[in-house]
């Protein structure tokens, strides 16, 4: 039973303050200093919660080179049809920089173009994808900036899909961490960036394309599973990597870092060692003293001593409201250092469901769906319903 034993249980109004989905960790007692690095800007984030665990000049806008393609990929995945053919234009085929050596007039599926984009950093693929999905490079840049606004990237602006240096094209370490956290929650993106080698049909030759991922972390760090390398003369070396250990996935970002492979290894080691993902509640846990149960699971990367300071505040819903009639009975707010770090909706418990229907009726199939930080009950419900739809829940 999820009885909140040994933890403060408070009844409070739903928090109305607009809270960011991420926070920069600071002032934690007994937390060892993060490892030094050579980056101009850096960030480390937990994918499940979106919590930023470390930030160094994290909000400073900088040149990001081919890390741009993280945004290009997720926008294309969300707006395009993966098995549709992308026709390569003369403009796309002639784009300078790293290339797949696509030919003008050649057709390639959007899915394969995305593999070439993320594994080999093909600028020709980036252009072809942008023209296919957005109608033009300018149209695609509009979609990129709209997505940036949607997910709360406040220090970013995109002018092109490839990341070559251009006035007005920039992002920050924190924004790139947030973007990558968002993208890694998409299963198509997640599968592409973890791929080490990809073959694809080559209509111009008797042999297939064979793309080997440029991300050396995939072979040099245990658990590495993404994401993207980058370099231009102005940005210098840029890198975003991800790794998963014991069910926890972290994202590391460095900008303008000449020693990035080693720095990423040290940042990821620091995160796994000092911010382990800890389960607080699981879907279906009953609430002591109430005929409710949790609809989602909630897990969070606590530093040493933080779990003991977590407050769990329950807010019941009044009968007769629209959400109540849908089966929701309230929500749990998880509060750390006076900030809501997550919410989980509550649903009718087994006894109430049996009394109201004469038989056991599950609102959804129990699963370990981790609740992301949310600022309102409506946001929590939308997250829950989306998860149920994707899982085939009732």
TrEMBL record:
The active site is at residues 66, 69, 121. InterPro entries: Beta-lactam/transpept-like, Peptidase_S11, Peptidase_S11_N. GO terms for molecular function: serine-type D-Ala-D-Ala carboxypeptidase activity. Substrate binds at residue 228. Residues 32-257 form the Peptidase S11 D-alanyl-D-alanine carboxypeptidase A N-terminal domain. One of its GO terms (biological process) is proteolysis. Keywords: Carboxypeptidase, Cell shape, Cell wall biogenesis/degradation, Hydrolase, Peptidoglycan synthesis, Protease, Signal. Residues 350-375 are annotated as: Disordered. Belongs to the peptidase S11 family. This is D-alanyl-D-alanine carboxypeptidase. It comes from Cohnella luojiensis.
């Amino acid at each position: 039973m999820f009885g909140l034993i040994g933890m403060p249980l408070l009844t409070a109004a739903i928090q109305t303050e607009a809270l960011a989905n991420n926070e920069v960790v600071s002032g934690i007692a007994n937390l060892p200093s993060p490892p030094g690095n050579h980056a101009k800007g850096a960030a480390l984030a937990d994918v499940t919660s979106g919590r930023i665990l470390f930030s160094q000049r994290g909000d400073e806008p900088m040149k990001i080179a081919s890390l741009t393609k993280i945004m290009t990929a997720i926008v294309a995945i969300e707006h395009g049809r993966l098995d549709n053919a992308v026709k390569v234009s003369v403009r796309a085929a002639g784009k300078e920089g790293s290339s797949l050596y696509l030919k003008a007039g050649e057709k390639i599926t959007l899915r394969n173009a995305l593999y070439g984009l993320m594994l080999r950093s093909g600028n020709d693929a980036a252009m072809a994808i942008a023209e296919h999905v957005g109608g033009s490079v300018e149209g695609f840049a509009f979609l990129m900036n709209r997505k940036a606004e949607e997910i709360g990237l406040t220090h970013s602006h995109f002018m092109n899909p490839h990341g070559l240096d251009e006035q007005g094209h920039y992002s920050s370490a924190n924004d790139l961490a947030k973007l990558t956290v968002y993208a890694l929650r998409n299963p198509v993106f997640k599968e592409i960036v973890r791929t080490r080698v990809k073959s694809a049909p080559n209509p111009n030759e008797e042999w297939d394309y064979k793309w080997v991922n440029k991300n050396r972390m995939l072979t040099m760090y245990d658990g590495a599973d993404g994401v993207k390398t980058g370099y231009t003369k102005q940005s210098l070396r840029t890198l975003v990597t991800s790794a998963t250990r014991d069910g926890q996935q972290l994202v590391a970002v460095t900008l303008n870092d000449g020693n990035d492979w080693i720095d990423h290894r040290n940042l990821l080691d620091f995160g796994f060692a000092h911010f382990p993902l800890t389960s607080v509640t699981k879907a279906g846990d009953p609430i002591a003293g109430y005929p409710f149960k949790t609809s989602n699971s909630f897990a969070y990367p606590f530093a040493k001593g933080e779990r003991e300071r977590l407050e769990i505040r329950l807010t019941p819903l009044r009968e007769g409201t629209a959400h109540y009639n849908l089966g929701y009975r309230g929500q749990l707010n998880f509060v750390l250092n006076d900030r809501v770090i997550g919410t989980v909706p509550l649903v009718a418990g087994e006894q109430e469901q049996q009394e109201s229907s004469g038989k056991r009726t599950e609102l959804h199939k129990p699963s370990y769906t981790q609740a992301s930080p949310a600022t309102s009950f409506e946001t929590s419900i939308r997250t829950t319903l989306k998860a149920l739809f994707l899982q085939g829940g009732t």
